[in-house]
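Sorry to interrupt, but I need a hand with the structure work. I would like you to pick a protein and set down its sequence and fold. Please put the record directly below this note.
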Amino acid sequence: MADGFGLGERGSEDFEGRVFHDLLGVPRHSLTYVADMPFHGLLGWPAPSKGSQWCDCCLLVSGLEVDQTLVDCGDLLVLAAQLVPAGSGDDDEDRGIQEHRQGGAVPGSGLAKHGPYGAAQGAGVLMLSNPCKAKSVKLPTAIKKKIIPWSLERVRAVIAGLPKRFQTGGKLAFGCGLRQGEVFGFAVEDIDFKGGWIHVNRQVRLVGTKPVFALPKGSKIRSVPLPAQLAAALKAHMKEFRPVDVTLPWAKPDGEPKSFRLLFVDKKGRAYNRSVFNMGDWKRALAAAGVIPPRKRGARYLQAAPEDGMHALRHAYASVLLDAGESIKALSEYLGHSDPGFTLRTYTHLLPSSETRTRKAIDDAFTEDPAPQGQGTSVPPAKPMCPQCALAA
């Protein structure tokens, strides 16, 4: 429980100072105690006037218990007081607090404290539900960017930049269109070398920070054709890196433990952690392939690459199949989409161009030359007839 979040005057003893990062999600090491912090800076307010001994306005929420899970999940909104010209001092403050309490907006003891240069109209308000989720709120339509698939040269370069123990995992993502978590959860029993298929039966996902086994996205178990070259790569990988028995709970952290012989595990023989992999092995592979620049000297992290996550290998798989003439229905099945319509909307711009076929079809319809024998439904032109025969007919 997070009790006694507060902002106030330096040295104030009417509330228990707490680290503000717990409320705003700011890294702990970057903040001091809230009594030492200018609140106007955090909220982007103007700096306090000269001569002011402390911030024009600060929010004081003392003796208030807040379930930390609400903060973590983002459903807790903190609305700060709005600065208005100074009124008649404490009467304004007390009246605003009473109005909020009567309306049930302020649980506990929410207070707004003001300095000599401003007053707070309305106390700090804690809302335990997200008003943006109301039925009356219409969210703006997101503009969906068209997927630009990687070239085959980039696909090969990124896979080559992965650690050797995971290079075949990259090939599996590209060669069968698997999602990242599905590659992490891929096991020996999922391969049918004789029939030429793989079976996507599970994924490794994070519930909070805990890894678990779970069904693939949408609970869609599926089978995907296994190309011969990928089959050979999987066999070679299993000879060099023996599959490892990994046990994780099923679906939730306290779920039933399940064990599978995974093909791809980290150096310590554990299931890959998505966050660790993405920030480490994947980013280094992108840098090695020239997708992002190398880490600058003194920088802690490599450049962000939101458009170039491991999902790019899956998009490349889709583009190759469409270019080869595979149907949207089959591709939807292989990708594990819930609806072929979604697949069509996602990848329709990658379908082979049909302009040439369209022009030829209409040109052929306009031509007066009879079609060659055995083609189309055209019939030979009738022989000329004399008027008397035509009338008789």
